[in-house]
What we know:
Residues 14-317 form the DUS-like FMN-binding domain. This protein is of the alpha/beta class. The chain has 15 helices and nine strands.
Amino acid sequence: MNTTVQTLDRRFSVAPMLDWTDRHCRYFLRLLSKHTLLYTEMVTTGAIIYGKGDYLGFNTEEHPVAVQLGGSDPADMARCAVLSQERGYDEVNINVGCPSDRVKNGSFGACLMAQPDVVAACVKAMQAEVDIPVTVKCRIGIDDMDEDEDFTRFIDIVADAGCDTFIVHARKAWLQGLSPKENREIPPLNYPRVHRIKLTHPELSISINGGVKSLDETKAQLLNVDGVMVGREVYSNPYIMARVDAEIFGDDNANTISRKEVVHKMQQYIERQQGEYFKPWHVARHMLGLFQGQAGGRIWRRYLSQNGTGKSPDPDLLMNALSAVESAQREIEEYNGQKD
């Protein structure tokens, strides 16, 4: 298979973030940008094949959306790729970057940087069974691997197996001595290393990940690579995505949705959810940063945190939080008017 692979616009994407980029988060982010490529949080092949939950569920509104798989057995990876394609995902991505202990102990994630032949076997097995793109998200190395020689060798071997798209977190992962959180912050960023891979492999699609915090930085990176993947900045300040379609994708017809409109649409989304275990907080926790840098931003976060959890959460959580924000904004405007 893989003879009619679709082309996805990868200029801007949101990173897979464990415990964060679930279906509620992705629905929220899709309201802000039509074109951004969204990724699921990593899901293991074991969970998909043997788990009792629906680990591949998503909202149809999320497209374009990719699933990220964690695993290292080619047969299992191929089976899960088929299931992902059948469910309607636009891409299946192999996790070769996560440094957590549970990932390392399961022989997948960043430790696979040292096993490019295993990753290559997974790529071949998956591409033989599906038509959607099979991509790899990796680091520039792990532990004592050479960032130039060993990283280039990894790219060459996996590319020779048929993978033409890599998303590269421009940091090493130190599997000995650093926690997953520290691995996102302490190893220095090496953007030039990723840029050189694009120069030496112009036929490959190379996206860069790590440390990008603004659309201006995104534009600067796009001078050297094909795409930029942003993670924590989007999560803490999601409204930066409201300008992505116009500024990054060049969509002249893009309409910038207001924060108020987002709140109304997400309140309606909450009201459509079913299940005895669902709580508004499952959605609201992804929206804490919506008013980042705005008057009333702290009031918004505090109201959601205090009223979205517990045994009797506020069913009109988002609308009431918005009212509190707007009340605070009016008071500030009146105060400033009196000063003038």
